[in-house]
Task: structure prediction
Amino acid sequence: MTLAIETPRKSRVDTLLGDIGIGQVLLAVALLLYPAIASDFFLTQIGGYSLIWGMIALSLMMLAGYGGMVSLAQITVAGLAGYMVAIFGENNSNVHGFGWPWWVVVPIAVFVAGIASALIGAISARTDGIYTIMITLAIATAMYYFTQQNYALFNGFPGFTGIRAPDFLGIYWRDPMPFYYLCLGVAVVAYAAVLYCARSTFGLALQALRDNPRRMRALGFHVTQHKIVTYFYAGLIAGLAGVLLVWFNGRISPGTIGVGAAINVLIIAVIGGMRHPIGPFLGALVVVLMQTFAIDIVGAERFNTLIGLFFLAIVFISPDGLLGLWGKLKPHLRQESLRSGP
Amino acid sequence: MHIHRRTLLALALATGLTAPSLALAEDTIKLGILATFEGAFTVLGEDGMRGAMLAIEEANGMAGGKKIEIVKGSSDASPDSAVRAVRKLVEQDGVKVVVGPLSGDEGIAVKDYAKTQPDVTFINGTSAAQDTTLRDPAENFFRFSTDGAQWMAGLGTYAFNEKGYKKVATVAEDYSFPYTQVFGFMAEFCKAGGTVPSKSWVPIGNKDYSSVIAAIPDDVDAIYVALGGADGVNFLTQYQQAGGEAPLIGGSITVDQTVLSSKGKMRDVVIGTPSAGPIADTNDTPEWLAFVEAYKKQPDAFPSPSLFAHGYYINTKAAILALDEVGGDVSDGGKKFREALSKLSFDTPTGKVSLDKNRNAVADMYLTEVSEGADGNLYNKLVKVVSQVNQTLGIPEEEFLALGAVSRENPSCP
Amino acid sequence: MSVLDQQTAGAGITKRQGWGIAALLFAAVMAWLIFAIWPDWLNDILISKKAFVSSIFNGITLAGLYFLVASGFTLVFGLMRNVNLAHGSLYLVGAYIGYEVTRLTGYWLLGVAAGFLVLALIGVVLQVTVFRRLEGDDLRQTLVTIGISIVAADLMLWMWTGATYQITTPEWLDGAVKLPIITAFRSNGDAVYINYPFYRLVVLGVAIVIGIGLWLLLNKTRVGMMIRAGVDDRAMLAASGVNVHAVFAIVFAIGAGLAGFAGVVGGSALSVAPGEDVRYLLASLVVVIVGGMGSITGAAIGALLIGLAEQIGLVYFPTYGIVLTFVIMVVTLAIRPQGIMGKSL
Result:
């Protein structure tokens, strides 16, 4: 939450926080019980998939919402983790596939993602605000072309197929129910980590950097370093999501990390809202539902126009996304605020 | 959050979240059709759909005594989206028979998915990658259309023997489908004694071919070009602008109708270009003519069916014929149905089609050459029918597999 | 020359002189590479003289095209701090309009004019209806441009389908010209000259003319003065009584118009198809990141670097040719984050 910084808005934000205290509990119960009512398809294709995209968008939200760094390369970072899983784990493309156990592969993948993200941060963090969006878009595209052309490491255009989630504790983690709970578990950890981070000294300093880098520099903060470390943390989250994504799809190819996907992450984060970590998940759910059922409702042909217009409407009407919309509506719905915190 | 959760529940109920709607009635059978209905390939996907509809209408919308219920799945030609769409068809809509997808790597992705759904039967659309059926195939994936290497049957030999080209340079896009086409061409051409001293692999997305053209050695007899759509048009125009003199040899999608009907000045360089593929514009067998007539009755049809309409037609037709045979019964996990499919052999507008042991089609191929018609339009004149081409191009399977998977370097005969 | 320079000159050559000598040497080598008859060993290394010279020429002419697109992008950014990620869409819309007008009227020049004018109009409309509302909010402006580009791409796909179009150029632009560059001698002693498409040379010429025109506009006219003042300090310009919005609208009209113009010109050289919007957007992005945001000269330098890198890469290492341009970008950012001609951040 940004309450420590945005004093003028304090009262409103405070109520939102209090509300979310209860809301979070209810949401957690709902999410835990969701498998009881949902079919396998809704468990993985909607539930798991939304959680995965929510996490990738969450890593963007962390950078953009708290640090003011809108990075379009988060899908690149996630994809890199996915590629690591394919290379060090098993695949059936007959390229690499060292077959290392998942508890070696996953930490490697996530760590590589963190480092890659930090590198991207190092390249782009020296420049200012709006430059970041351009530079990261260019980096994401460069990476897309590189994976497409490189056969030695990334197996070029076809990428890797036949990647399996691990069998562990006698459970095959790609089965619908375990996979959903796996995604949920990881997402909750990521969500809590971002919330915690935002309230820590580190997070508060980050938000201060966003609002006034010069003053922070004068106060003796290493602005660039601080940003790069944030990129590293965001990279870890995106990396985790990338591992889940590659288990989900069972495959990864340059198309997974193309420009369209990069923009998609941004759309999700913006639609959901970037002021609270729940926003990206909300956005992901909306976008995934639209993506899946557009063909039954309006036909697939004009799906992009639909989502584009929706996105534009959100940007115009509610800069804080659906979450902001909810924040605007809430006072009308409930007069009294329920405060749980101090 | 209350509201959010409630809406979610409402949505869940509204969209049938609780379970995939179980078989509605016993007298219908669901047929999933997966094609590209979004993105740059929309037009091709829609033409594929026309082909599928044609097959269904021919059967009066019935298969095995049951009414066919069509469920469409849409991808944007990326493998990820194809798998998502086919998952929805199978896991949400409860489809037991899927026809599709359209493009090569989608095919491989769907084949991999097929392995996880042994009770569902997958029949290809027009996807033409070799390894969809050749290496590591799925038991329940069938392809009644042919692959990109088969499409080239006869072309290499024709170029060497009839045209007298001994030395050929290739220009193609840098991904698997062109690799397969170049492979199909070179397999024959090199065997006949020709050499290919220079292969240019142009990264996808590049539109400016002038430097590539300049780098082609001057002393080649011809240039083999496997570029489709915008890339094909760009290459041909720039080749003409650069005053290119070496004759061309075309891949299956290089000199198709979309390219030939372009208004540019590249027509001078394409006349006389030999090419090969699963269909030919000037095929004048009664079966083909009847097919074209029927096709033209479809809404918004092209003047002549594309190979996408053709591929989806054949595969849908095969599905219906096999369903007829088993009385539309796929309740046993589709076992009988798949058995019927494997044994199926039927006459199509382009000759007899049957399957090999990897469930890949053995079919006739058409060798064509671009000529100018009486009306001044360009079209692909049929030169020769290469009958019953199998996936290993007539080479014994052992030997063929030993050639290795297609890539930038394979095959090679400098 | 300062005293300091002279003093160091005594000790050896100054840094500046060193660079000058290096540049001269480089120019001499290039001139030799282009005009001399190559010995065999050089042909072996660089494929052939024809390939080498063509890639250089193609690189330069492609740079001309990139410059046309990127100059509008950089101008808009420089003045309004607006990263217009819909710039590629403007290019493609221009190309389609140029195609339709040329097809309907039969006059290519009309198509070019329509591409410029219609897009300039669209630019003004966008500025007035969209960007003015979000003034001062860089991020939202950028997000809006992303939204616009998504919707525009889909609507164009709807209208013109995924087919490839070619804008027909008039007869007088056709054909190849013989350049006075000899690649080889035939066995009978005839010299083989390089043939180069005339149209591409025209594109280059047009780009140079427009570049000079823009420079003159910015440096020699009153409007240009206001634009430059706006780039330096927008608030101050407004405070001195200038109608900033009018200046913004003019700049946006020029920027969008140039994108549309480039669309028609580029669509005639290559072709018009979906996906070109993203391609040219990315090209402009890289060009202005390398050249420096907001600088016309920077856009020219960036375009030249990227155009050459792309074409040389395509011939000599096609596999990673596309990546090369991005490597240039990253190196530039590492050494000079603001770009070659950019003002320090």
Summary: The mean pLDDT of chain C is 83. The two ends of chain C are 29 Å apart (CA to CA).
